[in-house]
């Protein structure tokens, strides 16, 4: 039997009902969802981007769904794993967030931490021969990574600016103390494609962010790691119906190696917020074996006698520039 064709009036009524449902959901998601709770099956997904009250959620099959979040579940951010329910019109409502393994945040204007992204596993810190690298900034990023439980790596970009082998060796030697305490380091140039393979392999299967000072080539590296970025942006725009400006917010892109790269201007300019001395010490991983061995419990590792940290510096176990940056971060 042939399917019954809907009249223009019936189609118009259905569309009007769906539009009213969308308006109720946008204005009162709690009430709209309560009307449908018994009919909806919960699913898990990953938040790809958040723009205001609107979320793009990737389901288990890689499809993107435009969702809104319940008001009582807290601040949902890019990278969050969530429970969501699909509405009859194809959109969805996020009903819960799953526990995070890490949260990247930065202070807002009032000094309170504002989450930027969740569930990171790699923090890639970019440096380059130009502009002159800042060890102080590198150590800020490393402390932040240690405190949020994310593995940090150091990426020396634009190595083609150093034309001679001696220049490259001298530049790399300036950062050898990071490798000595377990931070993996990659030396790359976008003009030397074979140099990038190790970094690509490192990011495969991970959820990563790129950070670093202006001018080190973050945008160019993102384009190399995401050759289909424009296609992904188009999919997001189509899924959310909000246009391409959605990606001004932190966005979780798929890497070719089955990993993810979270990117936005805010994430790239991430900085360490206020931190007390005890947490700061823990952020310097090579300090940890020596903590608690100073004569004084409140030792600032400066001029105090019998300081275990300063003794470790003298013994070559801690790089002097790391202790100097510790004092800089501490505000000494």
Can you characterise this structure?
This protein is α/β, with parallel strands linked by helices and 332 residues long. The protein has three domains: 19-97, Nucleic acid-binding proteins (OB fold (Dihydrolipoamide Acetyltransferase, E2P), Beta Barrel); 104-269, Rossmann fold (3-Layer(aba) Sandwich); 285-330, Probable gtpase engc, domain 3 (Ribonucleotide Reductase Protein R1, domain 1). Helices cover 34% and strands 22% of the residues. The strands form three sheets. The chain has a six-stranded mixed beta sheet with strand order 10-9-8-11-13-12. The longest helix has 20 residues, at 8-27. The protein is globular, with a radius of gyration of 24 Å. The termini are far apart.
Low-confidence stretches: none
User: Average pLDDT value?
Assistant: 87
**Cα gyration radius (Å):** 24 Å
Strand tally is: 13
Would you tell me the structural class of the helices and strands? Answer: alpha/beta
**Relevant CATH superfamily of the largest domain:** P-loop containing nucleotide triphosphate hydrolases
Helix and strand layout, with pairings?
Blueprint: H1 8-27, H2 29-36, E1 42-51, E2 54-58, E3 64-69, E4 81-86, E5 92-97, E6 103-107, E7 113-118, E8 122-127, H3 135-148, E9 151-156, H4 165-173, H5 176-180, E10 185-187, H6 197-203, E11 207-211, H7 218-225, H8 229-240, E12 251-254, E13 260-263, H9 265-268, H10 277-283, H11 308-314, H12 320-330
Parallel strand pairs: 3-5, 8-9, 8-11, 9-10, 11-13
Antiparallel strand pairs: 1-2, 1-4, 2-3, 4-5, 6-7, 12-13
Helix pairs in contact: 1-2, 3-10, 3-12
